[in-house]
């Protein structure tokens, strides 16, 4: 669904929003399936790193509904690699924005646009939009996914998310994140089992 929406988003249309929601679900589903499969497998049939993941998952109730996706990824990384994962590196900055956008869409509330007094070049009083540097729209622009909204035009987050680059970026972020997690798995058999239905090719980004 995320891929189809991304492929169809050649113009501004709601398909991009669909891609955001389903791309985030794909990453969460992969991580939850991975932890579940490891937890259900007898420990003597697991490689040592996977056995450690099984132990840690049980000890901290890793599959609890309230456990954050990033904590699950950290535990997976520690168990399989032996070190903490640098969440400031790609693709996790993109993943953080993707999850933020998904949460904003799923738990939608009326959006408040901040405006400030301004004067047009012709000397006419008006208002300009002021975008918080930490907002999801600003973070998307900093990642180079969308152009920064013009201050002269009041632009909602929903309007920005209709950009076709958002759909492709969301889909690609899910693919890159899942592929990264697959590379952590020490067993080729487990890699093949978990990635059998996962697309590997990213989509080309539309022009900015």
Task: Write structural notes for this entry.
This protein is mainly alpha-helical and 208 residues long. The chain folds into two domains: 2-99 and 164-195, no CATH class; 112-161, no CATH class. It contains nine helices and two strands; from the N terminus they run αααααββαααα. The chain has helices at residues 2-8, 15-40, 48-59, 69-81, 92-106, 136-142, 157-161, 164-184, 188-195, and strands spanning 115-119, 125-129. A two-stranded antiparallel ribbon has the order 1-2. The mean pLDDT is 88.
Short note summarizing the structure:
With 208 residues, the chain is mainly alpha-helical. The protein contains nine helices and two strands, in the order H-H-H-H-H-E-E-H-H-H-H. It has two domains: 2-99 and 164-195, no CATH class; 112-161, no CATH class.
End-to-end gap: 24 Å
Poorly predicted runs are none
- Please indicate the count of domains: 2
Could you give a short account of the major beta sheet?
2 strands, antiparallel
> If strands are numbered along the chain, what order do they take across the biggest sheet?
1-2
Basic shape: elongated
Radius of gyration: 20 Å
SSE order, as H and E? HHHHHEEHHHH
Question: In terms of structural class, how would the helical and strand content be classed?
Answer: mainly alpha
Q: Average the pLDDT over all residues and give the rounded result.
A: 88
